[in-house]
């Protein structure tokens, strides 16, 4: 991962530095790096549970493809998944603009998609989540930032 870059940066910083580390997750590798870089008087603050895990009923599908083939690949995957009754799909995009464009294109192609991201009003985000939770819309397109903290049951 990024350990060599971190070690290189820290190696060029004064040893009497103040070090603050922030991470959304705390795997053993990150903990090991932190121990190496922290001097003394370590204070660790944790928000939430240490035992967060992905739900076992969630299927994650990753497919790497060229930009030109993405629309066709997405349609193929969606048709495969939508055929399973009760399936709900979350698609992550890098930008809010991509989330909106992808949603527009998917709706044009007949897919029941809605977008959620930070530029939407709170009332619209609530409505989109409600539509997704109830199954009125089975496809949610979200930026990775918007997806943080979503609790969809």
In words, what does this structure look like?
The protein is built from 6 helices and 3 strands; from the N terminus they run H-H-H-E-H-E-H-E-H. With 153 residues, it is mainly alpha-helical. A 3-stranded parallel sheet has the order 1-3-2, sandwiched between helices. The longest helix is centred in the middle third of the chain and has 13 residues, at 70-82. The radius of gyration is 20 Å and the shape is elongated.
Give a topology summary.
Elements: H1 3-11, H2 28-37, H3 70-82, E1 89-93, H4 96-108, E2 113-116, H5 122-134, E3 139-143, H6 144-147
Parallel strand pairs: 1-3, 2-3
Quick overview of this protein structure:
By secondary structure, this protein is mostly helical.
Derived structural class: mainly alpha
Estimate the mean pLDDT confidence. Answer: 84
Query: Which stretches are low in confidence, meaning pLDDT under 50 for 5 or more residues running?
Result: none
Instruction: Give the strand tally.
Output: 3
CATH class descriptor of the largest domain? Alpha Beta
Order of helices and strands: HHHEHEHEH
Q: Proportion of β residues?
A: 5-15%
Major pleated sheet: 3 strands, parallel
CATH homologous superfamily identity of the largest domain? P-loop containing nucleotide triphosphate hydrolases
Q: Looking at CATH, which topology of the largest domain would you report?
A: Rossmann fold
Count of DSSP-assigned helices? 6
For the CA atoms, what is the radius of gyration? 20 Å
Which CATH architecture of the largest domain is right? 3-Layer(aba) Sandwich
Number of domains: 2
How far is the first residue's CA from the last residue's CA? 32 Å
